[in-house]
Amino acid sequence: MRLVRLLIFLNAVIFYAQPSTEINDLLLKAENSLYNDPLQSIEICNYLVVNANSIINVAEANYILSKSYYVQGNYNEALNSLLNVTKTLDQLPSKTQINVQSFIALIFRELNLYELSNQYLESANVINNENKDSRISFKLESEKDINMALESLENGNPIEALTLLNKGKQNFINSKEKHSYQKLSSIYIDLARVHSQSLQLDSTNYYISNSLQFIKKEGENHYLEMISLTELGKLYFLQKEYKQASKKYLEALILAESLNNKPYQNGISENLASTFYALAEEEKFYTYRQRASLLNNELNIQENLIINTVYNFINEEQNLLYKSTNNKYNRYTTILGTLLAIIILTIIILKFWYRTKEKQYKSILKYTENIKKNSIKNPIKKKEMGKSLIIPEKTEQTLLTKLNKFESSTRCTNKDMSLARLASLMDTNTKYLSEVINKYKGKHFNVYINDLRIKYIIEKLKNKPQYLNYKVSYLAKESGFSSHSSFATVFKTTTGISPTIFINLLKKEIKNGDINTQETN
After folding, report:
1. Sites in the chain below the pLDDT cut of 70
2. How many domains does the chain have?
3. How far is residue 455's CA from residue 355's CA, in Å, rounded to a whole number?
4. Which of 34, 118, 128, 505 could form a disulfide with 41 if both were Cys (CB 3.0 to 4.6 A apart)?
5. Residue 461: which CATH number?
6. Count of other CB atoms within 10 angstroms of residue 225
């Protein structure tokens, strides 16, 4: 044990004896690898945080550490690392202070907390006013423009968003920033998203293509490449080029896994599920639907942590401000400012929580509406089969007509409904019926019948308010499932959200008047 302690001590002595150039080399290595191998950057920075021999080096290590967590989509740890930087912020060079404040603003932008993001950009601007660096001023103006653009896009105003993004792009070009291609790539991705929302697909393709070209000009950047490929997959999906969409999504997923970015793994998995649904590839659809569901559970836990971290982050900053204020009058002013900041922060966090739940709710409604549209527009969609029975065409058409009538009825909710029972009702044999369901519905019988049951109960929840007050066990029985657990599993696997969460969100939407319920018999 003594020998181990001695070795640790000697290692520390050797490290502290290292010239600053060697520490800077490690910091540079961490910086250079964070967009392609954030795990390596995290390991290097954690080592430097413990062992670096100056406040500036420790702050720089924490700063790069926060950027590495950002690349992983772990905003909770990114903010915790930045909090360590802010504790010694006034001891750092002004340029570093500006970079830190700007990066805090970027994280809050990712969380859609635009008010907080703008506050930190303004703080960076105050620091810059002391030096009056016009290039930094242009850069900060660019970030403000992007904030306003993304908030406009979120509020359903793509035209205003486009104007602000182009203004932001020009301000960034005016900043004459070195190594500017990565930032331009990011702006072009945002421009692609705006055009995509407006269904201007040629323009969307133009900006995504340019984004990928910008990435190549400064070497590898797996993070931005992952985002660009995801947007390209969405473009192909909108163009109904589903094979190409799945290809780009899978390329993006490989990068997301290499970066350990869980939010993008979740989003891409959901997109792949939708794509394979459109391709009628049932097994892959359920594989990625289930994967997205598991990732979503993990991310829900992270979101709760983020809310606490944001609150603690702002509160700690106010405490630091209070401690640094010596004048009694200023202290009272600071206390009042802190209380006001906490009130504002609470409102912002509640908005963040609601926005997250609203997004989750709208996602499931969009999903169910897409299923409904697909069933109307493409009632007969052949699925390529390796081996198939030869069924007379007249028999196939008769079975399809009967299946359509069956789908518009409530017979699927009979808990004893089986392939044999349905075949008997349709005056056919199980082999013929199974073949037709596989070939034209793109599903095995069990999946087919469970999908109908889930769609049935969702329509009840949306159109009959009393169903929102029923227990999940009753909903399971009502829709034809043999147990509460099997219903909950199928509901979540199919939609990506549990029945309980769906019901709670739906209640809030109805209470807010965003959904009009229609009583149906």
Report:
1. 1-20, 179, 315-389, 496, 511-521
2. 2
3. 25
4. 34
5. 1.10.10.60
6. 20
